[in-house]
Amino acid sequence: MPFLGQDWRSPGGCWVKSEDGWKREVDDDGEDSRPRRRQGKQQQSGQLQDEIKKNEIIGEDCEVVVKKRKKDHFNNNTKTQYFYQEKWIYVHKGSTRERHGYCTLGEAFNRLDFSSAIQDMRRFNYVVKLLQLIANSQLTSLSGAAQKNYFNILEKIVRKVLEDQQNPRLIKNLLQDLGSALCILVREVGRCVLVGNINIWVYRMETILNWQHQLNNLQITRQMNNGATLSDLPLHMQNSILYRFSDGLDIVSLGQVTSTLHMLSEDRHLWKKLCQYHFAEKQFCRHLILTEKGCVDWKLMYFTLQKYCPKKEQYGDALQFCRHCSILFWKDYHLALLFKDTGHPCTANNPETCSTPVSPQHFIDLFKF
After folding, report:
1. What is the chain's mean pLDDT, rounded?
2. Of 29, 143, 152, 170, which is least surrounded by CB within 10 A?
3. Strand partners, 357
4. Exposure string (b/e) for 12-39, b if CB count within 10 Å is 16 or more?
5. Comparing C-alpha atoms, which of 300, 358, 359, 297 is closest to residue 326?
6. pLDDT < 50 regions, the chain
7. Long-range residue pairs from 31-38, CB within 8 A, at least 24 positions apart, any chain
């Protein structure tokens, strides 16, 4: 086998082919050129090593600067939406051969499109109730990205309420529960349960107080409309509108507009229907309240039962859960009618029978392991 490497008998030497054969290269002075070449190679290798070290130091400095810029941008730019905007997510609670890991509440909250949902009047109350439940019990289970997403969506909700001047009472209750939950976490549990720097949470608590101040000072402007108003409608139509309300506070607020609406809002039969809609008959017996004449005070019964028993939840639109695919998704009813789109890649023969609406509490329960 021929030897293809350097001459092992004289490593580092330089040989030149001549008429008499191969000879070792010499300088003009007749001396061997190996020491000088070795010295030159050592100098060149030293220079190369210095340049490599300098380049490594410069590269490390550049990486540090880039990481710092990314970190500053991540911490300061709270309006950046780095999360996904999807309409469905697969809910898996264990590892299989096809899928590894599991889906968390924070991941579902990041990936599902809640930013667009708050712009829909039918889904607005649903998202607000979900944020309120997370603030009361699940805030510490969210990751840092999910917590940032939470406050981004909350900021959009507050801005929408201040601009549209609608549903301020719902947001006031949400901010009150969130502020109380943060105070309890900081004082009683400790700062270690909060993801991120404590200064970020101090800033968020100050922001919540500022939002509460803005909502308390909100002045609803009266809309000038020359057309027909609610008071111009017949009494039976005004009474029918009151029967469509599912919240007693809305009925009381509407009764303060005119004397006619106040008379209609004090109807016993109206409050009886409202109590029967939200509560069971067994709950009536536990908290039965009678008037001086011996009749049931249904209005006072409603507000008393509201303190001890949960009300029936009612939403214009809610998230859907497919039992066949284990997928949580928003359903677009317009696309469903036009193109028979189910809202997610369903493999069932009859996808409509497999989906069920998911309440905000059920949404949270899906990710409890």
Report:
1. 77
2. 29
3. 320
4. eeeeeeeeeeeeeeeeeeeeebbeeeee
5. 358
6. 1, 65-66, 69, 73-74, 76-83
7. 37/12, 38/12
